[in-house]
């Protein structure tokens, strides 16, 4: 939007795989896939059992399309193997552990060898550079540090790129603001909703977020929309790019977005083979068709992960800025976050998309599901913008209800609340409050 990167991100000489052709990438994928599957079969009992039960053997993988013969893995496999049952190396070779909190059931634990950590840092750095972050810049990292892969993953990526990292972690918003003003970072790494929280808090302190030193935001870890990109870019006068990843497959950096094209995350296909499947019958779909993203890690040593069902809903498209690597369409949501409202499927991102087109409404909203009289009901609680009150706020509410009805086909109750009333995000924001079982 505002800044031109000092050098073209596509031309880093130390990263030859980035500019490989599609054919070269696919040849490399086949070679890496063969050795990964053979290694997983030899070293991880779970893979051996699954493949034996399905009647497939690593030798059956002769071309890339043969991957479809192999069974999927999912979060349940990791849970059942808790904590280290799917690791393929002795513990002494595991250099780091991360875990996802697991809102339901046990945490899922993941591990990295030294080589895995180096690959991760390299791919994360590739994302940051693609998104316009330059070596020598100061980078404010507000992803949470700890077992979550966001903080340390983004940290290593920024260090690998040769930036000066400010390891702020998530939360303590007032302190974030002080450090952003005093240290004058060029880039910020955090979730999109947390950047919104920071901008909002700045305004409340009388600081215009557009006057900070920030030029670029690399934002991910939760679904967000093009409308939110515009909101944040205008709020801070920055370029905002997406970054995707998940702990089971690596962490942040599985895919990243080019500042030059801003057209979705390129999956780094020298290290990951993506597929899109039908979430219901699990058949592999053609590029361009919407479905569930399935990822295979091609180089991971400590935790080989083959055909992992992410539950993230997306599409695959030909690469643009990096033609050898395919691009993901924006994630509309997770299949397990889908609200089924009287037969209509709905994702929070759809509400975000629509709400941000209504004058006078802010991006701060919550969805509340209830079941009075055995009928599901959705209420959208959304903050008005400061300048929109009284009759204008009532009109905005009616407008939002009408646009949701027209765009999604569901009727819902709209409750416009005062600015600052709803809880603010400090990381991944929980948009849906399901009160149906209470
Ligand atoms: O959220 C890793 C990450 C950290 C990615 C920082 C980007 C930045 P998990 O906690 O395991 O890992 O959660 C992974 O978050 O399956 C998606 O549902 C969601 N997610 C991650 N990035 C995006 C994104 C990290 N760019 C889960 N857009 C994934 C939409 C995202 N959803």
From TrEMBL:
UniProt-listed SUPFAM superfamilies: Acetyl-CoA synthetase-like (SSF56801)
Catalytic reaction(s) noted: 2-phenylacetate + ATP + CoA = phenylacetyl-CoA + AMP + diphosphate
Keyword Ligase appears in the UniProt entry: yes
InterPro entries: Adenylate-forming_Reductase, AMP-bd_C_sf, AMP-dep_Lig_C, AMP-dep_synth/lig_dom, ANL_N_sf, PA_CoA_ligase
Domain of life: Bacteria
Keyword entries, A-Z: Ligase, Nucleotide-binding
GO molecular function: nucleotide binding; phenylacetate-CoA ligase activity
AMP-dependent synthetase/ligase domain boundaries: 90-295
Domain AMP-dependent ligase C-terminal as annotated: residue spans: 343-436
Enzyme Commission number(s): 6.2.1.30
GO annotation terms (biological process): phenylacetate catabolic process
Pathway involvement of the protein, from the record: Aromatic compound metabolism; phenylacetate degradation
Presence of keyword Ligase: yes
Family, similarity comment: Belongs to the phenylacetyl-CoA ligase family.
Role description: Catalyzes the activation of phenylacetic acid (PA) to phenylacetyl-CoA (PA-CoA).
Record text on subunit structure and interactions: Monomer.
Protein name: Phenylacetate-coenzyme A ligase
Organism the protein comes from: Brachybacterium vulturis
